[in-house]
Amino acid sequence: MRKLQRAILRSKNKIALISGILILAGFLVKWTASFDPFTRWALIAASVMGLIPIAIQAYQALRVKVVSIDLLVTMAVTGAFAIRNFEESAIVTFLFLFGGYLEQRTLNKTRSAIKALTEMAPETAWKLMESGEFEEVDIFDVDRGDVLLVKTGAKVPVDGTVLSGAGGVNEASITGESMPAAKEKDSMVYAGTLLDNGTLQIRADRVGEDTTFGKIIELVEEAQDSKSGAERFIDRFSKYYTPAIMVIALLVWLFTRNLELAITILVLGCPGALVIGVPVSNVAGIGNGASHGVLLKGSEVISDFSRLDRMIFDKTGTLTVGKPSVSERIVYGDRTDQALAFLASVERESDHPLATAILENIGDTIYSNVTETDVIKGGGIVASLEGHRVAVGNVALMEREGVNLSDRVRADLDRLEAGGNSLVLTAVDGGIKVVMGIRDQSRPGVREDLERIRKLGVKNLVMLSGDNQGTVEIIGRELGLTEVRGNLLPEDKAAYVRERAGQGETVAFVGDGINDSPSLALAQIGIAMGSGTEVAIETSNVVLMNSDFSRLPHALGLVKAITRNMIQNIVIALGVVIALLVSVLFGEWMNMSIGMLVHEGSILVVILNGMRLLGYKLKK
Amino acid sequence: MKSAVIQLETLICPSCSQKIEAALKQLDGVEKESVSISFSSSRARLDFDEEKVDIKAIEDAIDRVGFDVIKSKVK
């Protein structure tokens, strides 16, 4: 019996097709040949055939005490049958089945964004069996501690540690970095990344949903399923709404003795568009985010995020690159190439934080032998290279060395210092040759991104930092922020967030999640610049994948679009129900078939409207 | 107490998840609060008491409301 039910439900679409053909044939015969008996039997056949799968669904739901839409339709069609209105009973069953088919087709499209993501998840792995051979097994059968083989071109199936072998792994799916990372014994590898070259044997440390990639997928899936307050309300509402419609229809029948009117009410009362309208906006919107590197954790986040008053940024690593680089290099006099080569040679041997920035700036050069290095505490380095005396350091060191700083040099130094730079001066044989200004620079494009965020209606853009107020203000002016605060400890930042949120503002905090966890957690919207680290993913409400700041305006634009879309869908759904009810009470033309047509039509309209979000792009 | 993740056939209607959820919650030994059906991934998650109910009975309950179980993992 169960098998038969299942077989019938599977062929629902075919049944819809056949019943559609029967109805069409019936009407054609009626209009052309006026042969009523054929028409009647065609419509009866269509009704009975179409009703079977609907009735089965209604019965299955009823067994677990769920009153479903199928039950409303089953009762309505049975009623139409009882008053021998076969035209209506046939058309209503057909429209209901056909609507269900279209609904299924379009809903599958909204899931495509997630599918693209989950398809990146590995499905099989080569596992070391007891026989000592590697065998290809389903990823479901891989457990912690298993030894796996990863071949060139294959996906890494788990988070694990390399036991032997070497190779280059493309980790773009986790970190966004497209240059392959070199892996050797004891390196960590991550599920969902791609082995570009080489062969690796790895030990599985985390499998399936526990891997970083698995967590990302789970997060997106859960977010799509999580229900907002509005949805939970609609859920509760529909639980009572459907039985209520039945009671009303029953009362109408008892009091008016008009079965036709009673069954029309049953059909019109189907809550379809209302139930599906809000989730479809969320699913499509979250899907769009996932394919643009924005993970939105749930629909509750969406409504808060779209009403943002204040966006608070951490400075280092969020608005700025997070490591110092040379912002300006000025050279004086002649033989400056030699001076730069000397500078590079000296810095090459230093482990000072600024040394990396200097070497990066100079690039390839011919290094000289450094002899007699002398580190002057709080000043810099004095060294001998090819018989020249080279001093690298700050102004104090130059004065100690008796280097003459011309007015021009002093003007440059003042200007760089005012721009928030640390200064590195280089003198060769007592003459100043190179001045470098070094600082942590803002990320490229951040200014434009902030401008876009402001245009989207966030009035207050605030930067908080542990750096001194002077440096912070310079960057704040550069980026056009409305407020900047320096000299803050992580707990001061959290206190600021709490204070603002306490004043009734909707506050977002954007940080890298490493030392900002309290602030991320306190803000209504915690936005983590994630590079696949667990902390960032777990403590925040929104994750910008690959720490890409430029996705922030997209994220904000998207949540606003989702909210608008959701409101449109609610208006459409409620509007249709009200219009139908009004016309059944006051209009002559309303009947079951038209009601079902409008009802199925409104379901499709809200789904298609929600699907527009899949293609959402922020206007430049 | 064990927890199970059950991969279902692709769910095609949001009301399908309601039915499955209701069916699972009615099983004795299934932790009611823990039942969640993910529509977008067609997956059911739940915790259950292995002394009162086993994974076979859980799969059977899903089958009875008309849905195929593709595979399930208990841990």
In summary, what is this structure?
The complex is a heterodimer of chains A (620) and B (75). With 620 residues, chain A is an alpha+beta fold.
Which terms would index this structure?
heterodimer, A: 620 residues, alpha+beta, Calcium-transporting ATPase, cytoplasmic transduction domain A, Rossmann fold, 4 domains, seven-stranded mixed sheet, 55% helix, elongated, B: Alpha-Beta Plaits, four-stranded antiparallel sheet, globular
Number of strands of chain B: 4
User: Which oligomeric form is depicted?
Assistant: heterodimer
- Topology of chain B as a string of helices (H) and strands (E): EHEEHE
* SS element count, helices of chain A: 24
CATH superfamily of the largest domain in chain A: HAD superfamily/HAD-like
CATH architecture of chain B: 2-Layer Sandwich
Number of domains of chain A: 4
Rg of chain B, Cα atoms, Å: 11 Å
Portion in beta strands of chain B: 25-35%
Q: Largest sheet of chain B at a glance?
A: 4 strands, antiparallel
Strand order of the largest sheet of chain B: 2-3-1-4
Proportion in β-strands of chain A: 15-25%
Largest sheet of chain A: 7 strands, antiparallel
- Mean pLDDT metric of chain A: 84
Sequence stretches where pLDDT stays below 50 over 5 or more residues of chain B: none
Describe this structure in words.
The complex is a heterodimer of chains A (620) and B (75). By secondary structure, chain A is an alpha+beta fold. Chain A folds into four domains: 2-112; 124-216, Calcium-transporting ATPase, cytoplasmic transduction domain A, CATH 2.70.150; 289-321 and 443-555, Rossmann fold (3-Layer(aba) Sandwich); 322-441, Calcium-transporting ATPase, cytoplasmic domain N (3-Layer(aba) Sandwich). In chain A, the strands form three sheets. In chain A, strands 1, 2, 3, 4, 5, 6 and 7 form a seven-stranded antiparallel β-sheet that branches. In chain A, strands 8-20-19-18-9-16-17 form a seven-stranded mixed β-sheet, sandwiched between helices. Chain A has a six-stranded antiparallel β-sheet with strand order 10-15-14-13-12-11, with helices on both faces. The longest helix of chain A is centred in the C-terminal third of the chain and has 36 residues, at 551-586. Chain A starts with a helix and ends in a 9-residue tail after the last helix. Chain B has a four-stranded antiparallel β-sheet, covered by helices on one side. The A-B interface holds A 2, 5-6, 9, 56-57, 60-61, 63-66, 68-69, 100, 103-104, 107-108, 111, 114, 118, 140, 208-209, 221-222, 224-225, 275-276, 279, 283 and B 5, 10, 12-15, 18-19, 22-23, 26, 36-41, 43, 63-66, 71, 73.
